[in-house]
Design a protein that fits this description.
This protein has a three-stranded antiparallel sheet, with no helix packed on it. By secondary structure, it is mainly α. A hairpin with a 5-residue loop joins strand 2 and strand 3. It has 15 helices and three strands.
Length: about 300
């Protein structure tokens, strides 16, 4: 039988090839499983997957509860769960391939406190989009980025991959391939289309990426691929304007995605349609928005709560 390190490599290859997981997901799983591997090899000389049992998992969880992150702080409960989820996924893969080990369904995950869903109200969005200095090309770019994020609900990884040929501004739609290789069509609002058109018409470079950087040396190689704005840069751009707008919500790029979904549902969109537009595999993921957008409950409260009379 293959060694545990070899089995982990096989599992990661399975995630990449058969499950079509993103590079980011695979990177995270590799990290979580390497932590388990180092701990397991030190505490269990036999190093055999057949030795993984509930007692081993219990001791591993004790180890995780005392583990520190790079900042020297104890891992949060939700982070500890990520490590255990990765281990359960590995065990599920091993069982599927007839390798004797612990049945993953025997490992329970403790409930963690649900995190509050952050989103911006429409007036806060309107305030945020007016922050960039649109007398400059990079300011028009930033306005187009913020408008497009709110208009489409794109993930930041999807936004930075956009190229000129895939966007049909006239029809105000384009296709993206998102998480898990799932393709979907996204739609652009009139306002977002207006600012995107304005930004692209200012560009004289001919580079393929829709959003480019304006700092550092110009590199025209590979259709300006090295000029493409990174996800980290977009995150910094959004953060900068959130601070300038002095919003009460510590908004991020992902907050714009939450705001997109919340805006649709609040205005009467059905959950299945929003699921499609967000590119969620399961409707359960989309349902996290319903507790803040349930119009029927809002109307019941307005009609019957004595404080409204």
């Amino acid at each position: 039988m293959a060694s545990l390190p070899e089995l982990i490599d096989q599992f990661l290859e399975y995630l990449e090839i058969e499950k079509n997981c993103s590079k980011l997901t695979i990177r995270d799983y590799r990290h979580y499983l390497e932590v388990f591997l180092l701990w397991f090899e030190k505490s269990h000389p036999s190093k055999s997957v057949s030795d993984i049992n509930l007692d081993v998992v219990r001791k591993y969880r004790v180890f995780l509860s005392n583990k520190s992150d790079p900042k020297g702080q104890t891992l949060k409960k939700v982070t500890q769960n990520y490590y255990v989820i990765a281990l359960r996924s590995l065990l599920r893969y091993l069982i599927k391939n007839d390798i004797k080990t612990l049945e993953p369904s025997k490992i329970d995950l403790p409930k963690t406190e649900s995190r509050s869903l952050k989103f911006l109200e429409r007036e806060q969005i309107d305030r945020l989009v007016t922050m960039p200095d649109t007398s400059k090309e990079d300011g028009v770019r930033d306005r187009a980025i913020i408008e497009l994020l709110f208009s489409t609900g794109l993930r930041v990884s999807e936004l930075v991959k956009l190229n000129h040929p895939q966007i049909n501004i006239e029809r105000r739609e384009f296709g993206v391939v998102g998480k898990g290789g799932r393709a979907r069509v996204v739609f652009i609002s009139e306002r977002a289309a207006e600012w995107l058109t304005r930004y692209l018409s200012m560009r004289k470079d001919g580079f393929k990426p829709v959003f480019i950087r304006y700092s550092g040396a110009v590199d025209e190689e590979y259709n300006g691929e090295k000029m493409r704005l990174t996800a980290r840069s977009v995150e910094r751009i959004v953060k900068k304007y959130v601070r300038q707008a002095r919003l009460p919500v510590d908004a991020t790029v992902h907050t714009m995605r939450h705001s997109f979904a919340t805006d649709l549902l609040t205005n009467g969109a059905d959950l299945r349609s929003v699921q499609e537009m967000l590119g969620h595999k399961n409707i359960a993921t989309t349902q996290i928005y319903t507790h803040v957008t349930n119009k029927q409950l809002r109307d019941v409260h307005k009609t019957f709560h004595s404080g409204n009379k």
